[in-house]
Write the structure tokens for this entry.
Amino acid sequence: MPPEVSICEENTRKDVSYSREHCDLPNEISVDENRAQSDGPRENLIPGKTYESSNSNFFRDFFAQSGPPQVIALCLLIALALGSTVGVVPAVIEDRYARLNHGYDGKASCLDIPKINRPEECLFGNEDAQNAAALSGFIQSSLTFATSSLIGSISDERGRVGIMRIGIGLSLLAPLNLVLMQLYPRMDPFFYYASNALSGLISWMAVALSAISDVMPSIWRAPSFGLVIAGFSLGFAFSPLLAIFMSHLDISVFSLVILVASFIFVCAYMPETLSPEAAQKARLTRAAEMPSMDTQLDVFKYYMLRPINDLMILNRNTLFRLMSALAFFSGVVGSADMSLFVYYVEENLEFNQKDVAVMFMIRGLLGILVQTFVLKTLNSAIGERRVIMFAFFIGTVHNYIYGVAKTKMTFLIGSALATFTSMSFPTISAIKANNVDECEQGRIQGALYSLSSLASAVGPMLLRWVYHVTKDNTLYGKGTMFIFGAGLYVVATFCAYLLPEDKANSNYQRGLPKRPNYHRGESKKLSNFVGYGTVDL
């Protein structure tokens, strides 16, 4: 027999109109797969409230909400923990692989030896570490691809906080193994990379973005998501500096303690942002979409295929298909940049931990500026579509600089420019949220996060293959993989150009709508409202 459901859900499977008459839902509920195009998303605009374009009004409203400030604090803590070990992980694992796999027995750590004098065993250890990182990222992203849309859909029905707790809990395993690896000299790095890959089962970030969408009005979602990136940037700006003054083991323990504190914070202080009405509507919509299930085999088939069915939201319309394409191509490069560039600069440009710390401090401080002020200003002035095009154009430029860089300063310039590329993530997330109903926020965030995860799985492996094939050529040498990445950003820029402006831009003017009747549950599309100017309902 199928699992137990409420009377409303059971009867809704048989007759969609039942939910309208008996389940206390607004009249616009529908299981039509094109409902986002016809009815549009429900607005979070409050009747009688004025929304103005100034940064001060935005920040005041953002931090007055219950949920978004806690998400920012969580991102800050996690970035502080992960950023503090960003230079430690390559150093520890390269040295461990050199000793376990290639017989290195020197007293000094591999990265403490100048490159010109570095033993061949250390170079082989670096290759092993990069390959292991790419494989771990592939498995982690594959798991996220398989589960993220399902997790997002479940969060639409059951709430955000519980899923975030599980996701943060899984993220504790890799830092724990990093500490254990330094306590036990013969411990294989496999356990670190396996636990890191396992964290991909539940992506808490997609759920966190859905939590912000639950309470923030659509006209402020892009800058709200930008503040999430700013929280990460603030944590990454200064945390790598700690590695200069602390030993590898001390900083690894510090990272683990901060992540444990993050888990406690989520359990104790993170509020539930999903309204009971939205959760009920999501459950009824799901029940209406469920096929007739008369046997246990039917039930098994339904739940096995549910992740695929949830992913099909990406094929709903032209906008979603184009968003999927640009998210994939940009994700391939972005994930490879993040997972491989530290190994690359340490091996080829002789970056040490101090250099890595300075690079992340520059990126972090610029990232705060870009996400907090530049994104809001550009989004109001030119719209989300052109913001994405601009961000991907900068992505092309900074990857080309990575590829041709022969000095530390050149690479640092490219790294600074990369902060502007990061504007694409919150902007894409906002477009997704603005084009679905309130009961689908988790589903769409999870589905596109799944696609981005697929790109993250393919990206490092693809660029590593390009690296191995081209590292000995005379044109760009080992930097060819970044030149290849610049080409993929060109493709992503073209996909962004094709986005329909009336659906992508929240400041697209179609003329003012009639005054909405909120008592009857009517909703209006975000694009009906003019820019970030005054919207007096």
About this structure: The chain has a mean pLDDT of 78.
